[in-house]
From TrEMBL:
It comes from Thalassovita litoralis. SUPFAM superfamilies: GntR ligand-binding domain-like (SSF48008), Winged helix' DNA-binding domain (SSF46785). PANTHER family: HTH-TYPE TRANSCRIPTIONAL REPRESSOR NANR, TRANSCRIPTIONAL REGULATOR, GNTR FAMILY. Pfam families: FCD, GntR. This is Transcriptional regulator, GntR family. PROSITE patterns: HTH_GNTR. InterPro entries: GntR_C, TF_FadR/GntR_C, Tscrpt_reg_HTH_GntR, WH-like_DNA-bd_sf, WH_DNA-bd_sf.
Amino acid sequence: MTEAPTSKKAICLEDLRRKILTQEFEPGSYLEEAQLAEKYEISRTPLREVLNQLAGEDYITLHKNRGAQVAPMTHKTMRNFFVAAPMIYAAVSRLAAEHATPAQIMQIKDTQLLFRKAIRDGNAAERALMNQRFHEIIGEMADNEYLTPSLRRLLIDHTRIGMTFYNPRNQTLAAQRNVAADQHDQFIALIEAGNADGAADLAVAHWELSRAEIESFVTPQGMTIPLGTAPGAMTQRGAS
């Protein structure tokens, strides 16, 4: 039976996804079941069903006798993320161009409008979520049961990483946001035209834009601090 969109259980599920993606619940932190049950006004049984679904979607890990842990982001996770991302994004985009339906193309166009609005409004959380949804729809277009789980996990971490370094005051990042939005428009055009090679190539270019943003945050330019005059230097010059 399909869960009603307005049910407390459905609201809980969607809100927990959002809080994890926007890092309101930090990677590696534990969720308190009693607090969640009280907040969302649901009993332990439907809450555990929600947690089981989130675990199946790789948002959390369930530990016996320890509860639900938000999926951590370790050094190993990050390394594997950088290795896998371009391959998965390219493969999914290629398949999307081959299999997208008119209804899915309309859906991704609507999501793109919301993505651009979030950029204009300076809403970091909504921008990250709409970007995640945009690429999630591309995954739905690809319709591949082997790639979909990998893409889903990739998007969870990509969204969380984006929330970590996003700074609307950084003019370079702001310009890159507009480039990313333009590339989204190109994705739509290529997928709608059925251009599989073009979509795959664009996916790699789109990833490179994200990778450059992440690297600029992780390895920023060092601060230049004047060291001043060495102690005794003025005295020595005056004595000569």
